[in-house]
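Need tokens for this chain, all 359 residues.
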Amino acid sequence: SVFQGVINGTVAFTDFDLDTDQDVLITGYTDAAETNLFTGFYENTGTGFDLFYSTNSNQSDKRKVGGLSKSRAVVGDYDNDGDPDMLISAEGEATIFNNNRGDINEEKLNVSGAGSVTWVDYDGDGDLDIVISGASSKVLSNNTSIKNTAPSVPEGLMFTTAGDTVNLIWNASLDSQTPTKSLTYNVRIGTSPGASDVLSVNADLSTGKLRTQVNGNAGYKTSLSLRGLPNGTYYWQVQAVDNGFMGSMFSQEQQFDVTLSTVSNESSSELPSDTRLAQNYPNPFNPSTTISYTLKSSGTINLRVYDITGRLVKELVNERKNAGEHVVSFDAGNLASGIYIYRLQAEGKILIRKMTLIK
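Here are the structure tokens for all 359 residues:
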């Protein structure tokens, strides 16, 4: 196994190197006699895990950290520098692993008899305080000079529906402390305005304040897909959450409709094809690409291209088109490399796909 086997330890996950994948912390004893302590930070490389920080002194290219056992760990940005730190209680002591863009340093707290630990901004001053239970239960106030600020409200909310499936898309938020790619997102969905009976969030909808210190329910992605939705109108909002567990205000509420129909096998062949938006070809492209779409019936349609921030960069079609297959060329010779979104609005539907320009 790539991971060190331990007993009487703990495991925790966090993106300590800010590359949007989950890295792993493992602590504990490596032997049954409980004489050899181990702490290891494993970096997620995308194809596996590499031991990045550990108690093993023979790993000259890796930082050494102290061994811990019988521990509990929580993650949060306690110094408001934008990256996730770790608070660990072990053997009656409490330690903060201060993360500075992947450079981890230990800070022992002056407490004894520590049991469980957690973060919470109990005084509402914009930083995470420490709550410790055990022989000496207490709250340690965090008085860092850098105060956390909330991320920007997510914008550019869009959706596509196909049968009982809905794809929700929004633009990434910005934050003064947490890097954009390390923000997580909360999505609230309900069957009536303001309701959360489809997907709930652990935050106050009017203030954006999180009720507990957890990441958003949609993770790091700026999209969310749901299947199996029955017919009806649905209402949704999005909130951004930073590494200090401060949430933005929720976006303006949007809505989408799901309409299902049942067609027998005998009659299905007589129906025209559904309206479809194909993936552009080639993709990635430089500097031009072709976009194909199919219309179930004749009507006025609109096909536009947006950049990743939601800014309109090109309107390709805005006119009446006959039912059937259509092809349009998109020339991005004057645009910068990046991800672009193309959006077809036709027959009361909105279909969206992404394409990548590489120069």
